[in-house]
Design brief:
Layout lengths: L18 H12 L10 H5 L3 H18 L8 H12 L1
Helix pairs in contact: 3-4
């Protein structure tokens, strides 16, 4: 999701739909052809990696400010680490 937009909206169960189902539903707004386990997703997202990193870092700062954890990700930390290994 953070490849496409910054959001602090929690991802929660809705009726019979799990939080995971709701996350997929929200992602399909931006990437309609998305399916769990689909091939080629990285190729479709790689050009938005910098946006995702910036949004992830921004969300982490926001969550620390308001003591929240949904939604949350630290993936930007992992990507930064992997980039340093490659570097």
């Amino acid at each position: 999701m953070l490849h496409f937009a910054y959001s602090t909206a929690p991802i929660i169960r809705s009726g019979n739909r799990s939080p995971g189902d709701m996350a997929v539903r929200a992602l399909k707004v931006h990437l309609p052809e998305y399916e769990k386990g689909a091939n080629g997703i990285y190729q479709k997202l790689k050009d938005q990696t910098e946006s995702a990193i910036a949004n992830s870092a921004r969300l982490l700062r926001y969550n620390r400010t308001v003591n929240a954890s949904n939604p949350a990700t630290d993936v930007h930390i992992l990507v930064d680490y992997l980039r340093k290994l490659k570097g």
